[in-house]
Request: fold
Amino acid sequence: MLPTFTYVRPENLGQAIRELATPGARVHAGGTDLLGCLRDRVFSATRLVSIAGLAELRGVTESPDGGLRIGALTTLSELATHPLVLRRYQVLAEAALAAASPQLRNQGTIGGNLCQRPRCWYYRGDFPCARKGGDTCFAKEGENQLHAIFGGDVCVMVHPSDTAPALTALDATVRLVGARGSRTVPLNAFFVPPSKDYTRETVVDADELVVEVALPPAPSGGVSTYRKLRARGAWDFALTGAAVSLARRGKTVEHARIVLSGVAPMPWRSSAAEKELLGHELSDAVIERAAAAASTGATPLSGNGYKVALVRGAVAEALSGLRDAP
Reply:
C-alpha cells in the first residue's frame, strides 16, 4: 500500500527545483521504480514532484559538435528506436532495448534508469541493511547469487541499469540542475562507490534533477554493442553484461571502452580488458586475452562464482560480434 503524499505537477523547471527543496519531496518521472519503492517502504516521501509535463526534458537532438543531447524524460523505447542513436551509438540502442519489458520501456525514462535504486532483496525487504542506514550487508553471508563480484566493499548490490554501462562506454556526461545552479558530471563520476558512501548510489543531491545526458561525437571508425546475459530472455535484470565501444583505424583498435553490468554496485569499467585490445586487430587470440582479463580482480561470494565465467563469455561474444562490423 502506498503511503500518503502530496502530488504536485510543476509547469516549468524552476518551479520543479523549488518544489524539490521541500523536506520529504521526491521527483516523479516515469515512476516505474519510485512507486514500487514507496509501496515496499524502501524509503518514504511526503511530496511527489512530477516532472512528466516538462517538455524541455524530452527528446533527442543533435548538438553543434555532432554529438547528441538526450532529455532526461526520453523513454527507453524512444532511445531504442531513434535513428541517430541506432546509426551512431548502437550500444545505447541495444542496451535500451534489452531493459525490462515493452510496457516498462514505454514508461521508463533515461534519467530514471540511471538513478534507479538497488534491486537487492535485502534492501527491498524488511532488513536494516547498510544501504538503508544499518551496519550490515546481509547479502555477504546470505543469498548472494545475483550480487557483486567487483567493488562490493561494504555493500555488494549490483547496479540494475543496462543503459548506464552503455553510456559510460560512450564517455557520456550528465547535466544536473538544482537550487545552487547547474553542473555537468562525467558518467564515470556519477555513481558513488560503497567505499565512499554506501547510503547513496549517485552524486545527485535531494534538490537536484537530472535534466540531460550528452554524448560526444561518434569517433571515426567507431563500432559498439551491448551483450546481456540473463536468466530469462526478457523482463530480467542482467546476471552479467558487457557494453563495448571501439574506435579503429582500418582493423586496428585505437580506442576501447569495456564496461560491465550486473557485477558491481556501479557500471564496472575493465581497463585490463581494454589494454589487451589497443594496437591489435580483433583476432581470436586477442579476443580470448581480453575476455580473460575482464575478470581481473573479481572476488566472488559464496553463491555467485559463476559470474566470473559469464563476464568472460559476455566480453568474448561482444567483441566477436564487432570483429566484422563495417
About this structure: The mean pLDDT is 96. The CA atoms of residues 282 and 323 lie 6 Å apart. The radius of gyration is 19 Å.
